[in-house]
Amino acid sequence: MSNSKKIKNKKIIGREEKVMKSIFYALITIFALICLFPFLLLISSSFMNEKEILTEGYKLIPSQISFSAYKFLGSNMTKLANAYKTTITIAVGGTLLGLFLMSMGGYVLCRNDFKFRNQISFFIYFTTLFSGGLIPSYILMVNGLGLKDSLWALILPGLMSPWSIFLMRNFMKSIPDSLYESAAIDGAGDFRIYWKIFMPLSKPSLATIGLFLTLGYWNEWYNAMLYIQSTNKYPLQFFLQKIVTQANVQLLVQQGLSINTADLPSESIKMATAVAAIGPIILVYPFVQKYFVSGLTIGAVKG
């Protein structure tokens, strides 16, 4: 084949690649906008007037900007601040403690010189098939551990995850054994090898598991409903659910008294509480996104 034909074929291939890339980027952009639309609608609806929502439904561009929903949230600012404090406490504390325990478990299970690793792995996997149920769990937390109205009742249930332990194990298996052997020859113990070598090299899997842990604790409300009695210990999601319930109750009272229901943002308050709940966690995600993607892909292919 002559050089001119080769150059011509390269140009044709280059044009085809550009066309395919353009189509691909266009499809990804459209898909991203479709995913972004509900979030924009959520923010927009939180600023809508209650009367407009009831008559015209939720809209991307409201006819009139209203801050009544956020004013209603602001009337509970002290309790809202306490709820944020509680959620941040359990999210940060639970995530750090969970990462420490599950990474240690993954490190032990990835070691070929650990005799009972297969039996313990099966035991951990077995817990994903069965659970004790609600009543035994409640009795254990309240009567056995005495954690009624304690923040530990919100942290302990989500602290360990079999899926996350196996993800850590699979990721740590990809770390060369030569690093372990060379550190052991230099006199380093297992904990020092785990902390100084395996942990720094496991940032992608740690970020992946940490994101799941943080999201789980951030969205915590069910255990709070079961175990928490003090209002100053309500986590954010449970407190916001109480706010929505309070708005609905006041709406029913107003209807019974024939008062203008448009004064109470019962619909827009739902959107405002959703914005208050997801706003901080969205700000955190971009910082762990690259680790999150690589952690999922590497942990998925290593067996």
From TrEMBL:
Residues 84-293 form the ABC transmembrane type-1 domain. Coiled coil: none annotated. It is found in: Cell membrane. One of its GO terms (cellular component) is plasma membrane. The chain crosses the membrane at residues 23-43, 88-110, 122-139, 151-172, 193-218, 269-288. GO terms for biological process: transmembrane transport. Pfam families: BPD_transp_1 (PF00528). Keywords: Cell membrane, Membrane, Transmembrane, Transmembrane helix, Transport. It comes from the Bacteria. It is a multi-pass membrane protein. The keyword Transmembrane helix applies. Belongs to the binding-protein-dependent transport system permease family. This is Putative aldouronate transport system permease protein. It comes from Anaerocolumna jejuensis DSM 15929. The lineage of its organism: Bacteria, Bacillati, Bacillota, Clostridia, Lachnospirales.
